[in-house]
Amino acid sequence: MKNIKIYGLVLGLALLQNCATTKNFSYDGKGFKDAYNSITSAELKENLYIIAADDMEGRDTGSAGQKKAGVYMIEQYKKNGIGFPPALGSYYQKVPSASMKKYGETLPDSENILAFIPGTEKLEEIIVVSAHYDHVGTKNGVVYNGADDDGSGTVAVMEIAEAFQEAKKKGYGPKRSILFLHVTGEEHGLFGSEYYSENPVFPLANTVADLNIDMIGRDDPENRGKQYVYVIGSEMLSSDLKKINEAANDKTVKLELNYKYDDPKDPQRLYYRSDHYNFAKHNIPVAFFFDGIHEDYHKSTDDPDKIDYPLLQKRAQLVFATAWELANRPDRIVVDGKNTR
Ligand SMILES: [Zn+2]
């Protein structure tokens, strides 16, 4: 009798504990849904009008305008209670001038900006969500605001971080750690991401994937008016990643996923042309999210009033949903492919 009572008590406690630790991380669960719904076109717009304002002077690498944009971004992370990687000791990773000389230019010292949410179960495994926050600056007194390139990716990364932090506050913190990586020097030669990959704050061997966003706020002539996004490189290194991204899309925004640029014969060779490649070359699976080459690409007219904010929201939500699965699934994704076809 006594023994049975004790057994009952132990069983009861075990059930109670089980209820407390088994949370629903699926796309149908409240943890995901609330966070997903916190990504809004209104907040993306508010931030983008600041990041791509004239007083950021086109955010050229190492310029006062770029540093001002960086300060604003860090203020937002602080406001949301999102810190930096402990090993770095600050949000800044200095990218020295000497590391950016490859193409004969001399650029000033500049900074990558890193925000970090530690994983609750697999702290040492890192998911990277990246975007470059530099642009091409000012030419003949005209500011190149770079609202789409890559203000759109910059504010998307900030909003995705905020969504993960929302989930964390409600007890749904990511199981793996997430690094929000804003790189510098992209327009001059992918320098910030190259510097990070050569001076990683977390071991590359523990870096599971990089989801890179470079231009997701517009459409190109080929897809005018469509609800789409180009996804590039998602099946190169991992047979899991493309499937995860497609499942995330089916469960959420249902965009048309365009794989045109995955064709190895495509002359644009975009797989090699943005910051994700500095992860891919170290055998880290990547997916690159992109809206295409449009009329205002690298022109002074790439302005925030031309952004399709509802579409920007959907694309940011897709990257969030994919990152969510990468961070919370039981097994780390496989690396079973090669960088060349
Ligand atoms: Zn860009």
Automatic annotation (TrEMBL):
Start and end residues of each Peptidase M28 domain: 112-321
GO BP terms, alphabetized: proteolysis
An example Gene Ontology molecular-function term: metalloexopeptidase activity
Organismal lineage: Bacteria, Pseudomonadati, Bacteroidota, Flavobacteriia, Flavobacteriales
Pfam families tied to this protein: Peptidase_M28 (PF04389)
Protein name: Peptidase family M28
